[in-house]
Specification:
The complex is a heterodimer of chains A (385) and B (373).
Chain A: H1 2-9, H2 28-37, H3 55-70, E1 76-77, H4 91-100, E2 106-111, H5 118-130, E3 134-135, E4 144-148, E5 161-165, H6 179-187, H7 192-205, E6 216-218, E7 222-224, H8 234-237, E8 243-248, E9 253-257, E10 263-265, E11 292-296, E12 303-307, H9 310-318, H10 326-331, H11 359-367, H12 372-384
Parallel strand pairs in A: 2-3, 2-4, 4-5, 5-8
Antiparallel strand pairs in A: 1-9, 6-7, 6-10, 8-9, 11-12
Chain B: H1 8-24, H2 34-40, H3 42-52, H4 57-66, H5 71-82, E1 100-105, H6 132-135, H7 159-165, H8 195-203, H9 207-219, E2 227-240, E3 249-266, E4 274-283, H10 287-300, H11 316-323, H12 325-333, H13 340-372
Antiparallel strand pairs in B: 1-2, 2-3, 3-4
Classes of the chains: A alpha/beta (385), B alpha+beta (373).
């Protein structure tokens, strides 16, 4: 973290004509006054501080982050701010990202594993507007990845930071509603209640029926909520070389996994932890080792399974992997044909299109020129700022 | 079809346009102005100011206009703006005893110094439509001679102060050293929460939620028997001491509603029996809010009086966490965000459990005839 942090903490507005923040960031009004004197070449909204939060708030959040990193899995209370996005829609992750992002970062935002789900688009736009953020969809190119509900399939690297949006940071909350009690349970490492719950699951259903937000034991000490990622992703947290930060805005808690931290999913010797598996590979890229979304394709029960990690799927298709339904998908306009290809309909391209719910929109989609959504997004980004 | 919530950016931009269109409604109807909302929908503005935690009638009116009258959305707008404002200090405590009274009623005394002042209230209106309002543009009524409000007494002591002078009312003492009140918008709350935190959380809490809780206290889910000691509505002046001046400067007047409930007494070997207090304060004219708050305030004091915290309204964690309607709305409404990754996990599990169950049953069925033979 330190390498990244020094990068960010320096003159944070090093880029071009951006004004450097005053030593003590007093107010947005001051910032506005300073910016209006500058040539307005910036895409960030001048009325607001860089990355929206004022510098005092960022400092407060960074302190909480440092404490969280020092005590892996421990929930650190922080003065969560009211954000211009709804509580419960990622304000914790947004505040963490806002506190660590700088002009040299490349930000990737995913929701359900995909870069183009509405809330991911909305949050990415927020940082494009307020932090002049360079964004990317490529997992390996990102320095910060903000996520809701997934960990990317591609292994994370040293130096990368994964920021989780957390709805309920307290893994014991469903067992004990009172914060005063759960804090004591953590202090005493009194986790028997959780083991009993898992045992009761096995007694009733033959196995643990928690499929997401599956509790983990961090560094042999704290039981931690991994956020509602599928348990499929739990093993990726273990000994990850990336820094993992968790922000719960509404609940006002931050916690963290420093790189190379032990993360063990709770289980029993005779009922070892296991992850989801599917009988068929991804219909688009043929992957057999990725988490799949189920897509209902007609009203007669037909389904296709596709990678939930959209970038992973695109990368594989670009590398020539072909799933069983790739041709159909391209023919019906589901996959963007590659403009350079003579036979564009079957050539896989790195970009997925979507937004269809019924026949009518399907027709529209088919007549939409390739890349329109993408260019609309660029226009939108510029207009919106 | 692949896939419902993807391809977001263009759709998001389009929805902003659709919202603007829906907000405007039929263009044949004149657009409503912020000033009209501020002046003619003042009670809604008061609610937005309370739940948005910002005393600014113009911004509250703007928020209501922008949110199409959705009060929680309007409060959200106000809060998201408020959080960006610099804090340059705290005002001097306002003195509600010196309020310029518009309305003041007490249920505990038939008459009292300053008298009962009914003021503007819907209490004794019959809830019959005034269809004349439907017409709008009513010809100006010749102004009725109003009972002169300057006839009001200059001194209107607060009822709990009257009781307090007799030693019958629980005293309201600042904590040791009179520290600056907690600011729950800047610091995370911990539990058990002190009274300044509780009052602050309720002041910005949802009126409907507090109303329901207050009602539950009255009906039996909480053992308090309150009397409205006093409700007063009016203007108080706000003073501020700038560091560089060192003396108080009057910033202006704000409208407040204050409610003090007198509850059944308590006492101990050391302290003679005293009535206990429930306190509510709100921006603007917001009696229902102030009354609900004062009921719940008293319920939340249970610990101070050695009462068991048996009921929801007595549990500070329950009340404080769930009274915040912006947080509550955010979390309830986040359920409409995509959850298909987690749902896929559930689908995978339930199908497998059912498959395994079927297999077991089939095995059992096979086993039965053999056993019969």
């Amino acid at each position: 973290m330190s390498a990244h942090q020094t990068n960010r903490d320096g003159p944070a507005r090093g880029a071009g004509s951006q004004p450097a923040p005053a030593a003590v960031q007093g107010s947005f009004a001051m910032q506005q006054a300073a910016s209006s004197r500058e040539a307005a070449s910036s895409e960030t909204s001048p009325a607001y501080n860089y990355a929206y939060l004022d510098e005092q708030t960022k400092r407060m959040i960074r302190r909480a982050l440092l404490k969280a990193v020092a005590i892996p899995g421990y929930q650190v209370p922080f003065g969560s701010r009211e954000m211009p996005l709804a509580r419960g829609w990622g304000t914790g992750g947004i505040q963490v990202t806002a506190a660590i992002i700088g002009p040299s970062d490349r930000l990737k935002v995913i929701d359900q594993g995909a870069d183009d789900t509405t809330n991911a688009v909305s949050i990415r736009r927020f940082f494009e507007r307020t932090a002049d953020a360079r964004t990317t969809e490529a997992t390996q190119d990102a320095t910060i990845i903000q996520t809701r509900h997934r960990i990317p399939e591609a292994p994370l690297q040293r130096g990368q930071i994964l920021v989780y949006q957390v709805p309920q940071p307290e893994p014991l909350r469903k067992l004990e509603p009172h914060e005063t009690e759960t804090r004591k349970m953590h202090a005493w490492a009194e986790y028997g209640l959780m083991q009993v719950k898992l045992y009761e699951n096995i007694a009733c259903f033959g196995e643990v029926t928690t499929t997401y937000d599956y509790p983990v034991l961090v560094n042999g000490r704290y039981v931690m909520a991994p956020s509602p990622i599928p348990k499929f992703d739990n093993p990726k947290m273990h000994m990850s070389p990336a820094l993992q930060l968790f922000g719960a805005g509404r609940e006002k808690r931050i916690y963290a996994l420093p790189p190379h931290t032990s993360v063990r999913s709770l289980d029993f010797d005779d009922h070892p932890f296991r992850i989801q598996s599917w009988d068929e590979p991804c219909a688009l890229c043929g992957a057999t080792d990725s988490y799949l979304d189920e897509v209902v394709i007609d009203d007669r029960g037909s389904r296709m399974f596709v990678c939930s990690d959209s970038h992973h799927c695109e990368t594989r298709r670009a590398a020539g992997h072909r799933g069983a339904m790739l041709g159909d998908a391209a023919a019906s306009g589901l996959i963007e044909p590659s403009p350079s290809s003579a036979n564009g309909l079957v050539e896989p391209s790195p970009s997925l299109r979507g937004g269809k719910a019924d026949e009518a929109t399907e027709e529209q989609q088919c007549t939409t020129p390739p890349g329109l959504l993408r260019s609309a997004r660029k226009d939108g980004g510029e207009n919106g700022s | 079809m692949y896939v419902a919530v993807k391809g977001g950016e263009a759709a998001i931009l389009a929805t902003h346009d659709l919202v603007a269109e829906a907000r405007r409604g039929d263009e044949a109807v004149p657009e409503i102005s912020v000033a009209q909302i501020r002046e003619q929908q003042a009670l809604a503005c008061a609610r937005v100011m309370n739940e948005g935690s910002l005393c600014d009638p113009d911004l509250a009116a703007l928020a209501l206009k922008q949110a199409q009258g959705d009060v929680i959305e309007a409060a959200f707008l106000v809060r998201a703006y408020r959080t960006t404002l610099p804090r340059f200090g705290s005002s001097e405590p306002v003195d509600t005893a010196r309020m310029a009274i518009r309305r003041r009623v007490s249920a505990t005394y038939k008459d009292l110094p300053g008298g009962q002042v009914l003021g503007p209230t819907y209490d004794y209106t019959h809830r019959l439509f005034d269809f004349a309002l439907m017409e709008g543009d009513r010809p100006e009524q010749p102004a009725k001679p109003l009972p002169a409000s300057d006839g009001l007494d200059q001194t209107m002591p607060r009822v709990p102060d009257i009781l307090g002078a007799e030693g019958l009312m629980e005293a309201e003492e600042p904590p040791e050293g009179d520290p600056r009140p907690f600011d729950l918008t800047r610091e995370p709350v911990s539990f058990p929460a002190a009274r300044d935190v509780r009052l602050q959380a309720m002041a910005r809490g949802d009126e409907g939620f507090l109303l329901g809780l207050g009602y539950s206290v009255q009906r039996g889910f909480g053992g308090n028997h309150p009397f409205v000691g006093e409700i007063r509505v009016g203007e108080v002046s706000v003073a501020f001491v700038p560091e560089e001046l060192g003396f108080a400067v009057d910033l202006g007047d704000i409208t407040l509603t204050e409610c003090q409930m007198v509850n059944q007494f308590t006492g101990s070997k050391e302290v003679a029996p005293q009535f206990t207090r429930g306190y509510g304060l709100a921006f603007g004219h917001a009696e229902r809010k102030a009354m609900s708050m004062s009921l719940v305030d008293r319920a939340l004091k249970c610990r101070d009086f050695g009462e068991a915290a048996t009921y929801p309204a007595q549990q500070d964690e329950f009340v404080l966490y769930h009274a915040d309607n912006v947080e509550a709305a955010g979390f309830v409404e986040h359920l409409k965000l995509p959850h298909y990754v987690d749902f896929q996990g559930e689908l995978e599990l339930i199908r497998r459990i059912r498959r395994e169950r079927e297999a077991r049953r089939a095995a059992d069925d096979d086993a039965v005839p053999e056993a019969a033979e």
